[in-house]
Write a structure and sequence with these properties.
Layout lengths: L16 E5 L2 E4 L4 E4 L2 H4 L8 H13 L10 H14 L3 E5 L2 H18 L6 E5 L8 H6 L3 H4 L9 E4 L4 H10 L3 E6 L15 H12 L2 E5 L23 E4 L10 E5 L20 H16 L2 H20 L5 E7 L2 E6 L6 H7 L2 E2 L1 E3 L4 E4 L7 H27 L1
Parallel strand pairs: 3-13, 5-6, 5-7, 7-8, 8-9
Antiparallel strand pairs: 1-2, 2-3, 4-10, 9-10, 11-12, 12-15, 14-15
Bound molecules: pyridoxal-5'-phosphate (PLP).
Pyridoxal-5'-phosphate binds next to helix 4.
Length: about 400
């Protein structure tokens, strides 16, 4: 046995959790941590939510998996629920965000070929994140995710995020484009929120050119930004939407939803997944959707997220080390003027789990949608104080 048999793919913090309850995680020594990251936007209902626990234990006792050679009633139920919520027509189920985006990319290519475009291309954005498979890392706008893995998958054209004019220029120059793939709010890039009319203007441009508008809601979906999908706050409908993270509250499941001309492109033999949409994962997702609706957690995320933003602004606005405080619902960020990666470790020592993303200057918070007022105040209080101490130490260091 090798001394370290795990491949070295993650820079992990040295803590291991044994159990969780709501917004709290407990390590092997019984120390507790307030989880302001929800396993990277996955456990939106918090840890060990009783409705999800019940759904998966009941289902596990009955039937976990059959394969897609057979009808799976729970998969059909989940497709009904999701397409109804999203105003879409059809659903394909897989096991992760990258896989959901792979399905969307394949749909766009089929769509292109159906229109006689031999080398169909998809417009993707700067600083985007779409996953780690070869196609999705090629779509991702981050050289660090791509370096060493060339040759990349071709067929992607890049425009800066939140720049409709740049996409218009591409429309004028590139007859191969058949679709646009974009995150409504860029998550990994540091919770970058575009202009209010960005999606609406992209929708118009896609309509004018006969392109598919494909939204990557892997992170923003499932209630996180205050509506089931973020686009539901923009007054438009996409042709394709992908989601994953929060859909199963920790049970792996992804979905690619499609509408209109994109809804019936996939035919038997075109695409598939052995595990995709198995009874266990679908039971978890149905319990998640029931709970989001029954407990009005979307409304709660909108209201509590807005309050946390206000409170962070009251604590930190105007400080010379703060560049921006932004977000929507329970997807929040504090951008500093200086690199602050250590804050992830410092916050963990204070019992709060968060992460620093983007260019290492953005503190990202993705708390569970079930967060209480008291827990929210605790996060704002501890994180604001940590930022102030960190900034003071840094400026001492600089002047010393
Ligand atoms: C996390 C993420 C993905 C990738 O999801 P995986 O489940 O890790 O494959 C894709 N797109 C966005 C916007 C994400 O945040």
């Amino acid at each position: 046995m090798a001394s370290q048999p795990l491949m070295n793919t993650y820079a992990r913090l040295s803590v291991a959790f044994e159990r969780g309850e709501g917004a709290w995680l407990y390590d092997e020594k019984g120390n507790k941590f307030l989880d302001a990251l929800s396993g990277l936007a996955v456990c939106g209902l918090g840890h060990a939510h009783p409705a999800v626990t019940r759904a998966i234990s009941d289902q596990a006792a009955k039937l976990i998996h059959t394969s897609n050679l057979y009808t799976i009633p729970l998969q059909q139920q989940l497709a009904d629920r999701l397409t109804q919520i999203a105003d879409m027509d059809t659903a394909f189920f897989c096991n992760s965000g990258a896989e959901a985006n792979e399905a969307a990319i394949k749909l766009a290519r089929l769509y292109g070929h159906s229109r006689g475009v031999e080398n169909p291309a998809i417009v993707v954005m700067g600083q985007s994140f779409h996953g780690r498979t070869l196609a999705t890392l090629s779509a991702t706008g981050n050289r660090k995710a791509q370096a060493g893995f060339e040759p990349l998958v071709s067929g992607f054209v890049r425009a800066p995020f939140n720049d409709v004019e740049a996409v218009k220029t591409i429309a004028g120059n590139n007859p191969n484009v058949v679709a646009v793939l974009v995150e409504p709010i860029q998550g990994e890039a540091g919770v970058r929120v575009p202009d209010d009319d960005y999606l609406e203007r992209l929708r118009l441009l896609c309509d004018q050119n006969g392109w598919l508008l494909m939204l990557d809601e892997v992170q923003t979906g499932n209630g996180r930004t205050g509506s089931y999908f973020a686009y539901q706050q923009s007054g438009i409908l996409p042709d394709v939407v992908t989601t994953a993270k929060g859909l199963g509250n920790g049970v792996p499941i992804g979905a690619c939803l499609a509408r209109g001309k994109a809804a019936h492109l996939l035919k038997p033999g075109h695409h598939g997944s052995t595990f995709g949409g198995n009874p266990l994962a679908c039971a978890a997702a149905l319990a998640v959707i029931d709970t989001l609706e029954k407990d009005n957690l979307m409304g709660r995320a909108a209201e509590l997220g807005a309050r946390m933003l206000d409170d962070f602004r009251t604590e930190l606005d105007g400080a010379d080390y703060i560049r921006d405080i932004r977000g929507k619902g329970m997807m929040l960020a504090i951008e500093m003027n200086q690199p602050c990666t250590e804050l992830g470790v410092l916050a963990k020592v204070k019992g709060i789990l968060l992460n620093v993303t983007g260019d290492g200057k953005v503190i990202r918070l993705l708390p569970p949608l079930t967060l209480s007022d008291t827990e929210a105040s605790l996060i704002v209080g501890v994180v604001s104080k940590l930022i102030k101490i960190f900034a003071a130490d840094e400026s001492d260091g600089a002047s010393a």
